[in-house]
Amino acid sequence: MKKKLTCLVFPALLLASSFCAEASTEDQSATLSISGAVVADADALCNISAKASAIYLRGDISNLINLGEVANNMTFVPLTIQGNEACVSQLKEGRFSYKFVGVADSIEGKALANASEGDSAAQGVAIGLFDDEGRPIDINHTVVLASQNRAQGIGFQVVKLNGKVATAGTVHGVLTIDVERL
Q1: Bridge-partner residues for 9, per DSSP?
Q2: What is the pLDDT of residues 100-131, one digit of tens each?
């Protein structure tokens, strides 16, 4: 019987993600409150929001993509910046960007590391970050220009670390989405 991967990713300014790889297909529920603000001056008041409160990813451990490959089964979380007229004007001018910050994997430093420990922790895997077309985004390095495009956001998929054997188990990571004014 193929082992199934069950993932739970919480997106927000402080993005907590967890992933379980197990033989069963039990659903796990979660609640997340999403809020945040981007303020540089009183004239341009902006808020960032993620369009999901919980995401469940399922996959077959024998079919995980390798770190650095294009996503084939990602769950996408749209991100939006909204605000007053001055905020929208700056957004149209390309003056905001997203940067995804967290503990990077120990192999290539490009994906969100698995912070789970113990016998139940998955080994040889990380949480890959992807743009809206499934292209990998390097954690802590890649800056994504924010826009009003409704398809903008971040995708998540469990990835196999190059040179490692992936084993079923839990995966946990914490990701911060920084919004920077350019």
Answers
A1: 17, 55
A2: 999 999 999 999 999 889 999 999 999 999 99
**Which structure tokens are listed for 99?**
């940067």
Helices (H), 9-118: 85-92
Partners of 83 in the β-ladder: 46
- Domains in the chain, number: 1
Q: Which backbone phi and psi does 87 adopt, to 5 degrees?
A: -65, -50
Taking alpha carbons only, the member of 104, 111, 107, 99 closest to residue 68 is 111
Q: In the chain, where does DSSP find H-type helix? A: 85-92
pLDDT tens per residue, range 7-54: 333 333 333 333 344 444 454 544 455 556 555 556 778 888 888 766
| Residue 104, both tokens | 């990077």
CATH number at residue 171: 2.60.40.1090
Q: What are the backbone angles phi and psi of residue 29, rounded to the nearest 5°? A: -100, 155
Q: Which residues, 6 or more positions from 89, have their beta carbon under 8 angstroms from its beta carbon?
A: 44
- 151 in helix, strand or coil? coil
